[in-house]
Each structure stands twice: as C-alpha cells, then as structure tokens.
C-alpha cells in the first residue's frame, strides 16, 4: 500500500493521534515538513491519501508553499484520493475547492462541543453518535463550506466546524488529533496569545489542561469514528 502523505506546517502542530491511528491499522504514512523546508510534491505520485495538519499562519498569507499545496488538494479530489484537513488543513481544503477563509467573529481556544448540523450527511462519518460531542479548538479564522460540500458540524463560537465532500473527503475547523502532550505544548507556546485575547471563546491554560487525559480519550473516540470512515477510501 502506498503511503498517506501528511503535511506538517508548524513544528509544534504534528499529526498527533492521526498517525497513531494509521500505525494501529497498518497504514504507511510519510511526513512532509513544510516548516522544515520540504518541497510540496507537484503530483500525487500514487499516494493513497492526503492529510493536512494545522498551523499558526493564514491560508491568505503570501507563502510560497500555499499555491502548490492548494493545487495538490485539487488533484487529489479530482482523482478520488481521500483528503482530510485539521484546522488550517480544513481551511486549505476550503480555499482549494472554491471556498474562502476569513476572520471568525470570535477566537476559539480550548474545549468546546461540536454539534451535528446534517444527520444524514454526518452518519457515515459519525454513526449514531450523540447530537453533541466535545472537541478541541485553536483558531481565529474560519472557512466557508466549498461548493458541492455539506456542512456536518458547528460549535457555539464557529458556524462551520466540518464539511464533507463525495463521501471520502472531510475538512475540519476543530482538532480531533490532539494528545495530552500536544495540548501541553500548545498551552505553553500559546500562553501569550491566550493572555492577549478577550474573546469569550478562549479558555485559560489551566482550564484547558484540567482532566486532560480523560478529555483526550473522549476526543479520540470522535477521532476514531472520523478516521475509520476516512481510511475506507484509501487505495490498497
């Protein structure tokens, strides 16, 4: 089986639980370290799937790797190669597919429930899950749902939390890949951002890390549902 290509855009925003899940299912993966200067492949070159992680930058920034990454996303969708995006990754998917990315009314950092907005579209990805479930957030911008896609999740502070396309692609504003270690690192590195924010959607580092092991385990139950559906589309 050819590998899933995993794009890392920031050294602190690694794949976390996503690659733990792939390893558990015997699915090979390859890391493209945009933050370390790795080049964006010009073609799919037989990859089985494309995963896009988060990052502190904006999709609208003038960065040299953004246009080729948007092009690779379009190639993958056109070829039926499954694409999954986490936060910045979901925003990249939206922009590549004809959507837009703009400031969210409120910055959202910490734990917060996501709610299903379309039961039928969500069922293949989430099963008969509760209408509302906890997720992790760290974003100031948000994506629009691109043409042809269906919104399946929202939160109290962000209307568009996830969209699905063609039963094999999913773009998320939320983070389901978080581990306790990643959360601790983000709270340390993002303490100044949290302190400077007056948004009602932003939680303190202490609150974010309360009962973090149990919360991460619950988050991984949601991730398992999404990732299990996503890998069904991988070519083997």
Give structural attributes.
236 residues, alpha/beta, 25% strand
Can you give a write-up of this model?
- By secondary structure, the chain is an alpha/beta fold.
- Helix content is 33%, strand content 25%.
- The protein is built from eight helices and nine strands.
- Strands 2-1-3-4-9-8-7-5-6 form a nine-stranded mixed sheet, with helices on both faces.
- Strand 1, helix 1 and strand 2 form a beta-alpha-beta unit.
- Helix 2 crosses helix 3.
- The longest helix has 20 residues.
- It is globular.
- The model has no long low-confidence stretch (mean pLDDT 97).
Largest beta-sheet characterization: 9 strands, mixed
Task: Encode the helix/strand succession as letters.
Answer: EHEEHEHEHEEEEHHHH
Structural class: alpha/beta
Sequence stretches where pLDDT stays below 50 over 5 or more residues: none
Radius of gyration: 16 Å
* Strand ordering within the main sheet: 2-1-3-4-9-8-7-5-6
Helical amount = 25-40%
Distance between the termini: 5 Å
Mean pLDDT over the residues: 97
Q: How many runs of DSSP E, i.e. beta strands?
A: 9
Total helical elements: 8
Query: What would the principal axes of the Cα set say about the shape?
Result: globular
Report the portion of residues in β strands: 25-35%
């Amino acid at each position: 089986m050819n590998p899933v290509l995993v794009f890392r855009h920031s050294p602190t925003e690694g794949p976390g639980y996503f690659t733990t899940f792939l390893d558990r299912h015997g699915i090979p993966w390859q890391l493209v370290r945009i933050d370390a200067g790795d080049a964006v492949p010009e073609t799919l070159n037989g990859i089985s799937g494309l995963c896009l992680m988060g990052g502190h930058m904006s999709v609208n920034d003038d960065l040299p790797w953004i246009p080729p990454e948007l092009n690779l996303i379009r190639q993958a969708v056109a070829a039926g190669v499954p694409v999954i995006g986490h936060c910045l990754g979901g925003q990249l998917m939206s922009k590549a597919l004809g959507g837009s990315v703009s400031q969210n009314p409120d910055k959202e950092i910490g734990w917060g429930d996501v709610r299903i907005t379309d039961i039928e579209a969500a069922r293949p990805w989430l099963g008969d899950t509760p209408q509302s479930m906890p997720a992790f957030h760290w974003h100031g911008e948000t994506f629009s749902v691109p043409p042809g896609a269906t919104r399946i999740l929202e939160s109290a502070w962000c209307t568009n939390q996830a969209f699905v396309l063609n039963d094999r692609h999913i773009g998320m504003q939320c983070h389901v890949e978080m581990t306790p270690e990643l959360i601790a690192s983000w709270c340390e590195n993002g303490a100044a951002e949290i302190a400077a924010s007056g948004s009602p959607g932003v939680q303190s580092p202490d609150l974010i890390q309360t009962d973090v092991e149990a919360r991460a385990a619950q988050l991984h139950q949601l991730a398992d549902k999404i990732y299990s559906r996503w890998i069904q589309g991988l070519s083997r």
